[in-house]
Structures
1.
Amino acid sequence: MPDYTQIRYEMDGKVARLVLNRPQYRNAQSRVLLEELDDAFLRAGDDDEVNVIVLMGAGDNFSAGHDLGTPEELADKEARPYQEGLRGRYKRSWELNVAKTLRWRNVPKPTIAAVQGYCIFGGWIISSACDVVFAASDAKFLPTNFQYFSVPWDIHPRKAKAILFESRFIDAEEAEELGYVDRIFAPEKLDEETMAYAHRVAENDPFQLRMIKMAVNQVQDTQGFGAHIQAAHSNYMLSSSGEADPGYALKKPEGRRRPMVQRAMENYERHKESQA
């Protein structure tokens, strides 16, 4: 097996299990993690001994999203500095968060995400690339218009607008109602039930599985999925540039990270109160 440092690649019969392995950082997505995950998806996709791929997160959370500055990420940036300016930002954003995710979406084998705890921004992005999403009852999702903007395809466009306008988390139950999550399990049963389903799928003919996946993906492709993802990424680059504007509503407090996640949790609590 390859010598990965931030993910684990495990085989269980005909199922390849890819595990985000930075639990101390809630599996924040560093450049190294995304590069290793890309290699693992392509490796599993090319392996005739693999019929199904399962994506999981180690520890209590699936993924807290983008790595905004862990020591490992900062050291990597110093060792491999990014190109500066808009050109560098665009290339980095496209390669890390869009091109890779599109490749994972199109891996020619069924992919299953098992989500527990927090699934924030980039967590939604990588789970949305999977064909099936299972969730623990404690899962909380924060969808995003960042980079790989699949949300209007993942759930109904009107629901996508309502949630994104309000900027709030959705819990596992609501995610299932919206059609994003396929099944919910108790946290202690999530891995077991996900793997049981994966093994049932893996018993089927791999070529038929590939054709089924291709046919379903082509429904979205003929409706303009790829063109939308590219256009939405350009929109993201423009909107993210506006965060430096004097009138930007969510300025980062001195010495703190972006307040988006805290605001989203507050809005989730308000939403739940309004539904009571």
2.
Amino acid sequence: MKLGIDISQIVYKGTGVGRFTEGLVDAILNYDTENKWVFFFSGFRRQLNEKFLQKIYSKKQHTTKWSLPPTALAFLWNDLHILKPPFTKKLDWFITSDWTEPPTYSKKATVVHDLVFKKYPNTVHPKILSTQTKRLQWTTQESKLIFVDSQTTKRDLMDIYSVDDEKICVNYPGISISHQDLDKEAKLNVLKKYKLSDPFILTVGKVEPRKNIKNLINAYNALREEENVPDLVIVGLQGWDSEVAVNENIHYLGYVSDYDLAALYQSALGFIFPSIYEGFGYPILEAMAYGCPVATSNTSSLEEIAINGTALVFDPFNQKSITDAFLVLIKERELRRELVKRGKQRSDEFTWKRYYDTMMEALIKNK
């Protein structure tokens, strides 16, 4: 087959969609030896990493770049829905994801990560709310296949947009783990870099309303008034409408490198994830893979991942439920050991090889 895919979102380091896109492209390059691919990307200020482009070329695959900013393409494709990419004339399928939904000459498959803009619109930036609303209008009308990251997103698509069950393929993304099993000195050097002391509780995610960091901090501060508990470390890009109220016990590191993040996961006493809604939830699986015991919200796709006792679960809307999760993570040593064991087993189930195989099977079946 001749296939195309929009990889524009790969430039957004430190975001779930950026990690997803990079993992999927790696899977295609690593496992596909039969099909021809065109990797499309747009951009004006941000550029794809040159090493990444060379990896594509080394596999004798092709790229197509349009030097237009994302806002311009969103207007052309989501608002006006004009300008079919000429290269799609020669494709069997074109795969889109996350931001824009172009009209195409070929059949179209689309990845929908979540419907947070419909479920919790007050937690989404107005620009994203507008763009995603327009995009999903075209997605549901034109895409022959819709890949979703979880049963949660499938149910939401069927309930909100009345999408036919047969059109939706649930395909859990893989996770890409590097810098595993760092030695004690390597981990200590990272802690020194950020002036952290052991032990600490870690949370990871872009700081924005739906990640529920404010509620997490309120619960933590309330707990510290009653208990002597480890520090809280927050990692993630600064998003919109969210301030991190740091103090001597709450450390906000912002974006960190994959190496430093691996060291933090492997050093933390526990990991807590209070998000209100997720289409998938990379951080809790990454924590599991690095051997960090997890406590997570009992909402959306997070419940799908945290099955069979692989993580503690709590109500992210209830402060006492969050503080209880903190206390269990901190005080129950044997439970932490069991969560580490179960979590590692659970994280092993999410591979990019399985994602690639499921995707290709669906594309071939619907060709």
